[in-house]
Design brief:
Elements lengths: L16 H15 L7 H4 L60 H21 L15 H17 L8 H23 L5 E2 L26 E2 L3 H26 L15
Antiparallel strand pairs: 1-2
C-alpha cells in the first residue's frame, strides 16, 4: 500500500483513518481494473469464455506463489528465518506492484520479503541507518527493498547473464544511498518509530494545522520487532480484505462489466 497502514503498534488496535483512506484509494484502483480479483469474484464472470480467466497461467484464488502459510495463520517468527523453516513460497520473477497485491498474495509476499531483508542485512552487515527494525511501516522502504529483492531474483536466476550479479551489486550500492536518505527522513531508529511525515498541500484536509509542517506523532518504543511485524501484517491484510469485500458488494452495480487486469507491473 502507498503509506503506512497501521498508525499504532498495538496488535489489538482498530483500523485507523489512514487504513480507511488507503482502502478507498485501493477500491478506486480495483474499479479501474488495476487489480486481479480473487477467484470467488472472478467466478461471477465465468461464462465459459476466456475474457476473464484468472487461472489461465496456473494461479488459483489470486495466489501467485507456490505455497501459502499453514491454515492461513500467522506463524511465530524470530528475528530471522531458520535453515529448517517452512518454505514460504516462490515469488514470480516480475515487478511487484505492492498496491495491487490481493490479501492472499500479500500474506505470503510480505513474509518472503521480510525473510529476504533479514538475510540481506545479516549477509552484508547493514546497520539501522539502512534497514531499521520497522522498515515495514514505511512505504518508501517497502518499495525500495521490494525492488531490490526483485532485481536480486533476476540477477541470480539460472538463466541470467554471468555479469548479472555484479550489476546487482552496483544497484545495491545505489539502493543503499537511497535507503539511508529515506531512513533519515522517516524518523525511525533502532529503538523508536513514528509514521513518516507527509506535508499537506493547500486544499487537502488538515492543511494549515500544526501537523502540516511537522510530524506531530510521538515516537513509539520498539519492544518486540517480530510481534510488530505480525501486527502490521494483520492490519495490511485486513485492509486489503475490506477492499475485496467492498468490490464483491459492488459487483451488482457494475453492469456485469468484467473487472480484469493482473496488476503485477
Amino acid at each position: 500500500m502507498d503509506e503506512n497502514l497501521p498508525s499504532a503498534h498495538d496488535p489489538e488496535s482498530e483500523p485507523s483513518d489512514a487504513v480507511v483512506s488507503d482502502a478507498e484509494s485501493l477500491l478506486d484502483a480495483y474499479l479501474a481494473n488495476a487489480f486481479a480479483l480473487p477467484a470467488d469474484v472472478a467466478a461471477v464472470y465465468d461464462d465459459g469464455s476466456e475474457e476473464f480467466d484468472e487461472d489461465a497461467d496456473g494461479d488459483e484464488g489470486g495466489n501467485f506463489l507456490t505455497s501459502t502459510p499453514a491454515d492461513g495463520a500467522a506463524r511465530e517468527r524470530g528475528t530471522g528465518a531458520s535453515s529448517d523453516a517452512e518454505p514460504l513460497g516462490e515469488v514470480p520473477l516480475q515487478p511487484m506492484n505492492l498496491r495491487a497485491l490481493t490479501s492472499t498474495e500479500a500474506e505470503i509476499y510480505w513474509r518472503v520479503l521480510d525473510d529476504w531483508v533479514t538475510w540481506l542485512r545479516h549477509e552484508y552487515g547493514l546497520g539501522v541507518t539502512h534497514i531499521p527494525p520497522l522498515w515495514h511501516r514505511h512505504a518508501a522502504l517497502r518499495w525500495e527493498l521490494s525492488a531490490l529483492h526483485t532485481a536480486w531474483l533476476a540477477s541470480y536466476h539460472p538463466e541470467a547473464s554471468a555479469l548479472a550479479p555484479a550489476a546487482w551489486h552496483r544497484e545495491l550500492a545505489e539502493s543503499l544511498r537511497r535507503l539511508h536518505d529515506w531512513v533519515g527522513q522517516s524518523g525511525t531508529t533502532l529503538t523508536q518509530d513514528r509514521p513518516t511525515g507527509v506535508t499537506l498541500w493547500p486544499g487537502e484536509p488538515g492543511f494549515g494545522a500544526a501537523e502540516t509542517w511537522q510530524n506531530a506523532a510521538e515516537p513509539t518504543s520498539i519492544t518486540d520487532r517480530a510481534a510488530d511485524f505480525e501486527a502490521w501484517l494483520a492490519d495490511d491484510i485486513a485492509a486489503r480484505r475490506a477492499v475485496e469485500a467492498r468490490v464483491r458488494a459492488s459487483l451488482p452495480t457494475l453492469g456485469g462489466r468484467p473487472l480484469s487486469g493482473r496488476g503485477r507491473s
